[in-house]
Prior knowledge:
Elements: E1 2-5, H1 7-14, H2 18-25, H3 29-36, H4 45-55, H5 59-62, E2 63-66, H6 68-72
Antiparallel strand pairs: 1-2
Amino acid sequence: MAIIINIDVMLAKRKMxxxxxxxxxxxxxxxxxxxxxxxxxAIRFSTLxxxxxxxxxxxxxxxxxxxxxxxxx
Length: 73
C-alpha cells in the first residue's frame, strides 16, 4: 500500500511556509515533518480538517493512494 502525502505541493501552491502551517494547524514542526515525509502511520481527522482549512483544499489534495504496482513501476 502506498499512501502519498502531498503537503509540500499544497504549501507551494498556496505560497505558505511549513512554519506558518504549523502555527495555523496547531501541531508541532516535528509532527508535520513526520506527516509530510510519509513516515506517519495515522492522521487524526481533526488534524486533516485543520490542514485542509489552513490550505483551503480538500482531503484528496493532501492524501493520495497509489497501488503497490503503480508506486513501483
